[in-house]
Specification:
Blueprint lengths: L1 H6 L17 H20 L1 H4 L7 E4 L11 E3 L3 E4 L10 E4 L2 E4 L2 H11 L3 H11 L3 H6 L1 H5 L6 H9 L6 H28 L5 H13 L11 E4 L13 H4 L3 E8 L6 E6 L2 E4 L22 H8 L1 H26 L6 H7 L2 H9 L2 H11 L4 H19 L2 E2 L2 E2 L10 H17 L24 H15 L2 H12 L6 H9 L2 H8 L5 H14 L3 H9 L2 H8 L5 H14 L3 H9 L2 H8 L14 H20 L3 H9 L2 H8 L5 H14 L3 H9 L2 H8 L5 H14 L3 H9 L3 H7 L6 H14 L3 H9 L2 H7 L6 H14 L3 H9 L3 H6 L6 H14 L3 H9 L2 H7 L6 H17 L3 H6 L4 H7 L6 H14 L3 H9 L2 H7 L6 H14 L5 H7 L3 H7 L5 H14 L3 H9 L2 H8 L5 H26 L1
Antiparallel strand pairs: 1-5, 2-3, 3-4, 4-5, 6-7, 7-8, 8-9, 10-11
Helix pairs in contact: 2-4, 2-5, 2-9, 8-9, 9-18, 12-13, 19-20, 19-21, 20-23, 22-23, 23-26, 25-26, 26-29, 28-29, 29-32, 31-32, 32-35, 34-35, 35-38, 37-38, 38-41, 41-44, 44-47, 47-50, 50-53, 52-53, 53-56, 55-56, 56-59, 58-59
Length: 1043
């Protein structure tokens, strides 16, 4: 189950808070399979259902205690199962809203109790317990997660000496079978998915347009795009929707149903929310199931379309087949004419389209080696993916003629998805898309080196051992950094020969071959060819050789080749990670070069080459985990103490890559690596400084690590490195480290001492975005303190910060809004922001499609409104601004809702503005949010309700919209800020008699009485005032009864 959830389930990208499961058909299918397994578990496996988990599964549930019946001890807010463990602890414990379950039996009963909400409960459980198998069976099972052998599972579980080992063993096998079932189910689901592209969608729409118009025989009355603008990639959806796979939007008017607004996306076709009031705006929310194409969708929605389309289907399919035949017709007769007509650049493009033709010529001229024959099938499988796509500024362009619409693309995309799940491929970015193949032009003027290399390859093929060594030495004398020489070796079949030589027993031949492969493998095309020819498994085997020179050369070549995903996967699958980690152990006694012998120097070089290869491999998440399990962290920590600078760069580079994983960050602290990273910040080597700073940036999310950086004196060298702005990569790493370290107030004080804040303000202009994101992030943290806000203002930092509010980089906008909001807390800075039109720019960011930007902008507006001289008039001056804020209360994002409620609290301080937002319907929207369990949202929602009560009959309206009873439940929260805000809101609401009755019925008096004794004076007064109002109503009622 753990592997399936990691590899098959689709998770959202982390923004605010934790990652969650996306609402997709695949995720729904996985959840339903898990639910079926759990629900039937208690009947199919009654013994295993009683097994008590090592740790409970915990999550927030929406289930009410009243839903539980026999077998449970139920109170108003808690539920305990009568079934207990050997220590007398209940196997199910609910304390609203948190639930803990410790056996499959109780999980089964819980799902049966949940009934209609069980899908949401299963989703919440999975999201809160990302690795449920570890909690069920313990960490020992987690350590063998990647081992698919059932025999090993049985062996490892039975060795732990647990008296319940037999049950645990069976449970482990059941979970392993479930995992395999989920993976297979996911593969079947993905293989059935339809992947559309702009060409297919456009083709369908154009054909439907031809068949549409007035008259009963037409299939539709009309079909039109919502946008006339077409991007270069064929899409008409805005760029921020294209990242969700959306292609275009069409408005369709069938004969027999109302107008439909449809989204066409890569996943399929579905009904959206239609056009909004904004000019040209679309409600992108999905309102229907996803269909495989536009025609299928319309057949489902319109009976008239189905009837008329059935008459047109023959013509439709005939045109489709005709186009298919035209596109797939052979082009060989046209090639000579095209080559004459095309200029040089056109010829090179044509040559790219003739890769397969070129390969067939080479195989005729040169007899392929055994390795080539062994790997040709593998190569054919990968050739489609390797040659179809090319990166050109983020666009995908075809490298060959168009095939039948959708067929090849569907096969390729489905195959890629399946391969990605099976291979556990990661989301690394460097060279993930391999470059297209490239051959020398047949009639091009080739340099003399090309022909000389061709002769040398012949000697390599047919000569004896001496001739082979001489030919290798001669080939090494060429300038192998030159692309012509690199491709010449490949084009004349030299690569196959060089890889074959690695399989011989002659050490000299192996060394010569590896020296050449090491040089030419810097070329991306050569790298791919080496993998296709099966070179990596042979190099991995050489890592076991007793010859240290061979180990070094093999590791360095692997480092060059493992720059793309398929190569990294091949290294791992053939046991390369474990062998590379073992190389790091060679240099444990060679820390001082002054005392090292020649033997020790070779050991150091072996370890350096091993670290270099691990650095390349560590760009994959699965490889990072493999390095950790192979014991790589202590060895890397040991190498970090060396004074060999050329060793330190790959070691720190590997640690920097791996530090993105939480397991590594914990291990880095445990191995005291931070101290050495800080020490190497003082190095003269810029590359080493960059990687050390980047590693600190990755690790400094943790408070303990930030404190360690300060204690070991790392803040001063970071501040001093800010003055060197020529190397932008290093500057980005250094500013990133400063940003993360600034989260701790003690570090901010130190940075102020070192004059780092003034330097950061100077970096707000003329810097690349990757630097600006970090600089602004650091200033946002520093400006949480008054002294630093004044310092930024005096250094002229307000204007460049406001200028950055017009950017499009989402991360930069989040950081800029936070920094501007922090500065606005100081009245003089706020005056400058207002003068520079900064508040209007912040308000306009509330329209940004990214929820993180919206939330950050809304938070920033709060201090702006608080500290503006005439805040009420300023807010009213923004045309449509108040309506925009109120409409944001319809968002699904909790952070956006909390920030907007905080903004409304400040806006509502002005009576005129409060009247306007009341007219825009703020009361029902706030009331609708009252049933929330999020304490942050509760606090700001209660404050907003408290403020909004001060206009007209809003108090009465909140009662009518049933906002009072949920507010009473807020008093049971553990957050004192929620208590204060809620008590103030209830005090305002208690001015209405009906609200007092609702409060009394929901037990508010008892809760408020406890809060009258609070040390918080505001809470005391609000609680006492509310009780007073309730009591006065009771007395008046009693008096009226007796009179």
């Amino acid at each position: 189950m753990g592997v399936a959830l990691r590899k098959s389930a689709q998770w959202t990208a982390a923004g605010y808070g934790t990652r969650t499961l996306e609402i997709t058909p695949l995720n729904e299918a996985i959840l339903k399979e898990i639910m079926m397994f759990v629900e039937s578990f208690i009947y199919k496996h009654p013994q295993e259902a009683k097994y008590v988990f090592v740790e409970p599964l915990e999550w927030k549930t929406n289930l009410d205690p009243s839903a539980f019946e026999s077998g449970y001890i139920v109170s108003e807010t808690t539920v305990k199962s009568e079934e207990v463990d050997k220590d007398g602890q209940p196997l199910l414990f609910l304390s609203v809203p948190h639930i803990k379950i410790r056996s499959f039996g109780q999980l089964s009963r819980f799902l049966l109790t949940a009934k209609d909400t069980k899908l949401k409960e299963a989703q919440a459980c999975i999201e809160a317990n990302r690795d449920p198998v570890t909690k069920i069976l313990g960490l020992d099972y987690n350590a063998m997660k990647d081992d698919t052998s059932v025999v090993n599972i049985l062996d490892k579980i039975t060795k732990d000496g647990d008296p319940e080992s037999e049950i645990k063993m069976k449970l482990g096998m059941l979970l392993k079978h479930l995992d395999l079932h989920l993976l297979n189910h996911s593969l079947k689901h993905i293989s059935l998915e339809i992947c559309l592209n702009p060409a297919i969608v456009k083709n369908d729409i154009e054909r439907l347009k031809h068949l549409s118009g007035k008259g009963e025989q037409t299939v539709l009355e009309s079909i039109d795009y919502t946008s006339d603008y077409e991007f270069s990639n064929g899409c008409r959806a805005p760029p921020w929707r294209q990242i969700h796979g959306e292609i275009c939007y069409v408005v369709v008017k069938p004969h027999d149903v109302e107008t439909l607004c449809i989204t066409c996306s890569a996943e399929g076709v579905f009904l959206n929310g239609g056009k909004t009031d904004d000019e040209g705006g679309i409600n992108y929310e999905r309102k229907s199931e996803i269909y495989k194409d536009l025609v299928t969708f319309l057949k489902e929605k319109s009976a008239k379309f189905l009837e008329n389309m059935s008459k047109q289907d023959v013509r439709f399919s005939e045109e489709w087949d005709k186009e298919k035949e035209l596109n797939e017709a052979p082009k060989k007769e046209e090639e000579p004419t095209l080559q004459k007509a095309l200029p040089a650049s056109g010829k090179s493009v044509l040559e790219k389209n003739q890769i397969n033709f070129g390969k067939s010529q080479m195989t005729k001229r040169l007899e392929p080696s055994l390795n080539w024959k062994a790997t040709v099938d593998f190569k054919d499988k990968n050739v489609l993916r390797d040659t179809q796509e090319e990166r050109h500024g983020g666009k995908l362009e075809r490298s060959g003629p168009i095939v039948s619409p959708g067929r090849a693309q569907l096969v390729r995309k489905s195959a890629e998805k399946i391969e990605e799940i099976i291979s556990e491929s990661s989301s690394e970015s460097e060279e993930d898309e391999e470059p297209p193949d490239h051959r020398q032009e047949a009639n091009a003027d080739l340099p003399s080196e090309y022909w000389q290399i061709q002769k040398l390859v012949k000697y390599l093929k047919g000569g004896n051992q001496t001739a082979t060594v001489i030919a290798l030495c001669s080939m090494k004398d060429f300038n192998l950094a030159q692309e012509t020489c690199q491709l010449a070796i490949r084009d004349v079949g030299g690569l196959e020969v060089l890889i074959n030589l690695l399989d011989t027993d002659e050490v000299k031949c192996k060394i010569g071959s590896l020296k050449i492969l090491k040089e030419i493998s810097h070329n991306p095309q050569i790298r791919r060819n080496i993998v296709d020819l099966g070179g990596l498994p042979i190099m991995v085997n050489i890592l076991d050789s007793p010859h240290k020179s061979l180990k070094c050369l093999a590791a360095e070549t692997i480092a060059n080749v493992a720059k793309f995903r398929r190569a990294r996967r091949a290294v791992r699958r053939h046991g390369g990670i474990t062998k590379l980690v073992a190389l790091l152990d060679c240099a444990h006694n060679s820390q001082e070069p002054a005392q090292s012998s020649l033997y020790d120097a070779r050991d150091v070089e072996v370890a350096r080459c091993g670290a270099l290869a691990l650095w390349s491999c560590s760009k994959s998440h699965v490889n990072k985990e493999a390095i950790r399990k192979a014991g790589g962290i202590p060895l890397l920590a040991g190498l970090l103490k060396t004074s060999h600078e050329n060793m330190l760069i790959p070691v720190v580079g590997t640690l920097q890559e791996c530090a993105s994983e939480e397991n590594y960050r914990a291990a880095i602290k445990a191995e005291r690596i931070i101290e050495n990273l800080v020490k190497n910040l003082n190095s003269e080597n810029e590359q080493l400084q960059e990687h050390c700073a980047m590693a600190i940036y990755q690790c400094a999310e943790d408070k303990e690590t930030r404190d360690l950086v300060r204690l070991h004196g790392g803040l001063k060298p970071l501040a001093s490195l800010l003055n060197n702005t020529d190397n932008k990569e290093r500057l980005a790493a250094v500013t990133g480290a400063i940003w993360k370290c600034s989260i701790s107030k003690e570090n901010v004080t130190k940075f102020r001492e070192y004059k780092a804040i003034e330097t950061l303000v100077g970096l707000l202009t003329d810097q690349p975005e990757e630097v600006l994101v970090n600089v602004v992030g650091a200033l946002g943290e520093c400006c949480q303190e008054y002294e630093n806000r004044v310092l930024v203002r005096k250094c002229g930092g307000i204007q460049p910060l406001v200028n950055l509010l017009v950017g499009i980089n989402q991360t930069l906008l989040v950081n800029v809004t936070k920094a501007v909001g922090a500065c606005a807390a100081e009245p003089e800075s706020m005056a400058i922001i207002d003068r520079l039109d900064g508040v209007r720019l912040l308000w306009s960011l509330l329209k940004n499609p990214h929820p993180d930007v919206k939330a950050s902008a809304a938070w920033a507006l709060c201090p702006c409104i608080q500290n503006a001289k005439d805040a009420g008039e300023m807010v009213r001056s923004f045309v449509g601004g108040l309506e925009l804020v109120v409409n944001l209360l319809k968002s699904d994002n909790k952070e956006v809702l909390a920030s907007v409620c905080a903004a409304i609290t400040n806006i509502a301080k002005d009576q005129e503005n409060l009247a306007v937002i009341t007219d825009h319907g703020v009361v029902p929207l706030l009331s609708k949010l009252a049933n929330t369990n999020n304490d942050k949202l509760r606090r700001h929602l209660a404050e907003a309700i408290s403020r909004c009560c001060m206009w007209g009959r809003n108090r009465v309206a909140f009662g009518e919209y049933k906002a009072v009873a949920p507010l009473v439940r807020y008093l049971k929260s553990n957050d004192p800020n929620v208590h204060r805000a809620t008590a103030q809101a209830l005090y305002q609401l208690s001015e209405d008699a009906d609200n007092c009755i609702t409060m009394h019925e929901n037990g508010a008096v008892k809760l408020l009485l406890d809060m009258v004794g609070s040390p918080d004076q505001d809470l005391q007064e609000a609680a006492a005032g509310c009780i007073s109002n309730i009591r006065r109503l009771a007395l008046a009622t009693e008096k009226a009864r007796y009179t």
